[in-house]
Amino acid sequence: MPAPRAIGIAALETRLARWPAEWGDALWVLIHGDFSPPSAALRFDTLGIVIDAEPVKDSILKSAGCVLQAKVSVPERSVAAVIDAADRLAVLLGIYAAGVLGTTSAGWWSHLTHGAPGGAAPPFASERITPVLQALDALPREIERRVRAAMYWIDEPRPVAAETYRFDILRRYTGYFCAFECLVDAINLMKPQPAPSRAQKAEGIAAVVAVRGEHLGVTDIAELHRRYVDPDFTARAVHALKVCFGEGAPKHIEACFRVHPERNRLLAVNQAIRCGEIDASSLKERLRIEDKQARLSVIVFGMLARLVPSGRQSSTTTDAASSGNGASGAGAA
Hints:
Layout: H1 3-16, E1 26-33, E2 42-44, E3 49-55, E4 66-73, H2 79-99, E5 106-109, H3 111-114, H4 126-138, H5 141-155, H6 169-190, H7 198-212, H8 218-228, H9 233-245, H10 249-258, H11 266-274, H12 283-304, H13 316-321
Antiparallel strand pairs: 1-4, 1-5, 2-3, 3-4
């Protein structure tokens, strides 16, 4: 099991060991959103969920319009049982969202599964900003534009501390991958890949033809075009990673494009999110994506540091740790 994901599971197991006695055989959670409370308690026996009618007052979910206490039955106090309970909650909230035609949002939170809301609070200080402004001003216009875009995608998906109780890992992952794409373009503009000579092209084409012979097909021609005429994103990203990380590049190239199974490649995760192939309602799947986002953030801040001074690369571990599975905190659930 990859280290960040193992840490996430271990943190969950630690919190499960502190299961409050009053909960009994139910996971207590807070359901939050912009909705009106029900007139009476709601009971969904097929899902094993009971929702209280009385709104929770003074909860730690400060930005939610309404907060309700819910109890989800579990057969045992284990990671597998809690993941199953989370799946049942996702079904309920998905049905609610579809029923109101997506006009409002609803989610759930428990300190056992989510940890405490919050995050780092570094000072908003000029010494963090002025050197970056100066570095941006010194960059060629096309590179500077892509670096600014990367910074936007780093900032945009991250909620304020009062809203970190919401599961936002898919938004953050796609945001960071957009930043990665911007930085790949910037690095390739800063240091373009060496173009193969006419002799190298001829030698490479002849080698493919000799191997493929009469079986030479469209796929082979497309590969030759990618290699010698118009490198695709993977080729440009590999080049950018080599420029930024030198001897450390192979592990990042492996994580992005070559690791097995293929679904765990950073590129494949991004494509799966965009194509709707990720089971976004699954707590188990979210833990997997958090693992991948932790690696992606290391890559993004490492690349950014090659272009502008950044104090963030040393804090990527903190960012990953505070993304939703922090230490347990106090609250009604």
